[in-house]
Amino acid sequence: MAPDPAGRKPEPVREPPAGENPLRLGMRRERIAEPCVMIIFGASGDLTRRKLMPALASLHARRLLPPGFTVLGVGRTAWSDERFRQIMQEAVAEFADRELAAGAQWDAFAAGLMYQCTDLGSADAYGGLARRLTDLDQIRGTDGNHVFYLAMPPSLYPPIIGGLGEAGLDSGDRCWTRVIIEKPFGRDLATAQTLNRDVNRVFHESQVYRIDHYLGKETVQNLLVFRFANAFLEPTWNRQFIDHVQISVAEDIGIGDRGGYYEEAGVLRDMFQNHLLQLLCLVAMEAPVAFEADAVRDEKVKVLRAVRSLDAGAHRVHAVRGQYAAGQVLGRPAGAYRHEDGVQRKSVTPTYAALKLHVDNWRWQGVPFYLRSGKRLARKTSEIAVVYRQVPHLLFGGEARADLVPNVISLRIQPDEGIALRFEVKRPGMSLRMRPVDMDFSYGSSFGLLEMPNAYERLLLDCMLGDSTLFTRRDEVEAAWRVLQPVLEAWDHAPEEGLEFYESGTWGPVAAHDLLRADGRRWRRI
Ligand SMILES: NC(=O)c1ccc[n+]([C@@H]2O[C@H](COP(=O)([O-])OP(=O)(O)OC[C@H]3O[C@@H](n4cnc5c(N)ncnc54)[C@H](OP(=O)(O)O)[C@@H]3O)[C@@H](O)[C@H]2O)c1
User: Fold this and answer.
1) At what angle do helices 474-493 and 293-306 cross, to 10 degrees?
2) Nearest residue CA, atom 34 of ligand 1?
3) Pocket test for ligand 1, best of 76, 77, 454, 472 (most atoms within 8 A of CB)
4) Which domain CATH number covers 465?
5) Which residue lies with its CA nearest to atom 20 of ligand 1?
6) Helix (H) or strand (E) holding 220
7) Ligand 1 center to residue 113 CA distance, Å?
8) Do 292 and 439 share a domain, yes or no?
């Protein structure tokens, strides 16, 4: 294996066409990747239809894909290239924009879509794949540059990685090879470590892109800009001024047709190990020395390593779980988790969890981070709320004192992406009464955006460009599992202990509210 087969050469810079407004085109001195083939393992699956192909078609329409860009879809379903193109066209029309799936624009994109019917569980598959790639590289001028995207059942990751290595598809001369691995990355610390070893036996770490689409969200990236490009924030972003932090990722939907997967996973593996702990890292991390992959990831790992362990019974006090029962969501009847397809009638899989974590370092000592996520909650929303301490001494007595609420900076990740600062003002009138108001920045109104850029677009492009800043590193994934491991073990050991059933359409189990009430706090009403 070459020392750094990811081959980060300087990328060509493309200028906007004369007379075009580069900002409107979204291509202000954008870098263009080198020609490449993206091999999607699992091309007949849900992720490809709903996310990957719409993202690629949109990148094509925005002229951000390299010349000769090619997709080789792989699955067991017996499709021809033509059939694959038809199905993908329907998918793009359904899950993205009808315009992207029509006319000359679609035809040009579809000319680069190929399909190969292969059982990747069979060792013979990889020779055929290598031959097809050699042909495609010649026909399409892609120079042997390959991105392998593993959109497959995770049980197949090890044989696929091994198969690629044995077929010599892990690297090449004067070209680059990268591999994108979907979540879940392992199902606990031990399996994640094993998978990392299997992956790194074949691929150099610089070739590996572990994807967490949350990191591709515009508002999540903005969190770094907000923190590290504004001078006013840093002096108060610490234990002296901040009382606590709340991170909420709420979904109003249930598990849909993913019962089999969810029964195995549960909410901690599905949401906390990746999305919520990533958000925690971005809020709590120190300023990296540069906005570069390793510098950013070094700081995130330090946060995860500083999280106080929930072992030795701490999970009983600091972790809460629940499962949705029947109820009403947004005025519509919603059934119980136990009645979903693919779910056991006596299932004890948690669909909601709340954790209280401490980051034991100088900046955050004594500041609790409350994390919650669940399905079938009252509404779909993701938010980080940084709640400040009260002022040390209040000048205004009497009624004013009763009105006082703490300052809050809330970062809305979705929907209605933006940032709000809550502070106190005097109510107009003769008496001295106060009221909290919000100073509110909204992406939609400030930038005239109807829709935020798609996270997968950003991440797919970054991978083609060799930029892994927004992907998780080996030690980071393992550190995240290490945080959750004691809770996972305790919950697996006593699956019914403390499991509370909450009505669909509410804000989760009573115990989650008690978790904060015990500290004299409460969850924000979002
Ligand atoms: N769907 C999402 O929204 C989502 C979100 C985040 C992460 N993910 C992750 O992405 C991965 C894929 O999810 P998905 O929802 O797309 O799954 P899916 O709909 O079940 O699709 C699985 C794909 O794998 C292919 N496959 C399975 N066994 C194969 C084999 N032996 N040889 C060749 N192909 C094989 C299937 O092809 P055939 O059917 O043709 O055999 C199909 O294309 C999973 O790891 C999942 O956790 C999915």
Assistant:
1) 30
2) 75
3) 76
4) 3.30.360.10
5) 45
6) helix 218-228
7) 18
8) yes
User: What is the CA(149)–ligand 1 centre distance, in A?
Assistant: 11
182 Cα–ligand 1 center, Å: 10
CATH code (residue 65) = 3.40.50.720
pTM: 0.91
Same domain, residue pair 235 and 171: no
**Residue 92 to residue 303: CA distance in whole angstroms:** 39
Q: Is 315 a catalytic residue?
A: no
Q: Are residues 136 and 231 in the same domain?
A: no
Instruction: Let me know if residue 410 belongs to a domain.
Output: yes
Q: And the tokens for 507?
A: 């804000």
Question: Is 122 found in the same domain as 31?
Answer: yes
Q: Which domain holds residue 177?
A: 22-182
Taking the chain (526 residues) in runs of 10, the rounded mean pLDDT of each run is: 46 39 40 94 96 96 95 97 97 91 94 97 93 97 97 93 96 92 94 97 96 91 94 96 98 93 94 96 96 95 97 87 96 95 96 98 98 97 96 81 88 92 93 91 86 89 95 97 96 93 97 97 91
User: Which structure tokens are listed for 221?
Assistant: 């990236």
11 occurs within a structural domain: no
Query: 244 φ, ψ to 5°?
Result: -165, 170
CA of 75 to the centre of ligand 1 (A): 9
Residues 246 and 152 in one domain: no
**What is the chain's percent helix, strand, coil content, to nearest 5?**
40, 20, 40
Amino acid found at 109: F
Q: Is residue 397 part of a domain?
A: yes
Among the candidates 128, 163, 182, a domain finishes at 182
Question: Of residues 275, 315, 318, 358, which has the active-site annotation?
Answer: 275
